[in-house]
Model the fold of this input.
Amino acid sequence: MLCPLEPAVRPAAEGPRGRRTPPSLADPDVARDPYPLYRTLRDGHPLRHDEPFGAWLLSRHADVRAALADPRLVAPPPGRTFTHLEQGTHAAHRALVSPGLQGRALAALRAGVERAAYVLARRLVRREEADLVEEFCRWLPSAAVVAALGLPHEETARVAAWSRTDLTHLGAVPAGVEAALRPHIARRRAHPGGDLLSVLCTARADGRPLPDEAVAGLVATLLGAGGEATGRALAAHLANLLDHPAQLALIRARPELTDAAWAESLRRDPAVHLVLRRALAPVPVGGGTVPAGAVVACLLGSAGRDAARFADPDRYDLFRADPGQLAFGAGRHRCLGVPFTRMIAGTGLTALLAALPGLAWAPGFRPAPEGLLTRAPAALLVRTR
Ligand code: HEM
Done:
């Protein structure tokens, strides 16, 4: 699936004075490699209406950041996830969830995430070759978010399976997932603990507890974000490091570089390539004006490669002098999982490097990133010794 707006694909057309107009985001070739289109858009079409895709495209770093921070641009319907909330309820839900994903709560989770990373990495030790997507990236983030919520460890397999098919980062909450969460909610309402699910189950909004449906929605959002987006981001990160063995060797020698490497992967190859907004009013941006009611696609994948913001933007460089990225969005909806994902990626990489001293691509293997809304290699075939 390319886009929730179900675009029809059309070929690129001749523009004025024979200049070819850029292809649509809905073009299957663009999904295979969106970066040439991103460059064309940034260079000559900073605000472009992409009719087949059904949205106005913003591609420059400064414009994407401005759009994400603009209160006149809100998440388009349908949907009832976090990003669809605004103002009072949105602030209240952020205030509920964010303490469970940072500071002391995050520190308390570290040992469990390290253990999960260690077990997953050690399973690969006796193997000649392994697929890190199948055997590592799909599992570690699910295990981490299950632990953060205080769900039983045995739920990890179910959450990992949901992340493949049912749950996406900030996508809709399927009825089956909601039903499966209800017994856990009932248990936590009866016996609250110190975990994030208990916080949600005991929270009060306007003097009343959050209804089961609201708790299930929040939990499913966190499971989807934790599983799908983080798994894909981890896969893209490992691909970058395996493509740059000298930088990988440096991280082995100097583990304090781990976080910089993660940030650089998020800039160059973010897991979430675009977020959609709808204009509540005419919004001047990108040198033009988005009309009221229009849908805007903020191209995070393009923003990270903007030469006006990053020197030599296609290069992977963990010593980058101009770091920074919009991979987690910006403004009032900026991702709540930022420190959590850093911890997952850091512990994951540390465990893999400790367990697999000869970690490198399997002979002849090249990663093939796929997807446009979220993007990452579908497989990472490596030799382990
Ligand atoms: C590397 C992995 C991740 C990436 C790339 C990512 C990316 C994003 C992006 C781009 C947004 C902004 C969406 C928008 O503005 O419409 C967002 C929002 C959000 N993310 Fe993540 N995310 C990741 C992991 C997580 C994790 C692990 C969690 C929690 C367990 C999480 C929870 C959320 C929540 C709750 C929001 C909505 C915030 C709001 O609307 O106020 N994310 N994320």
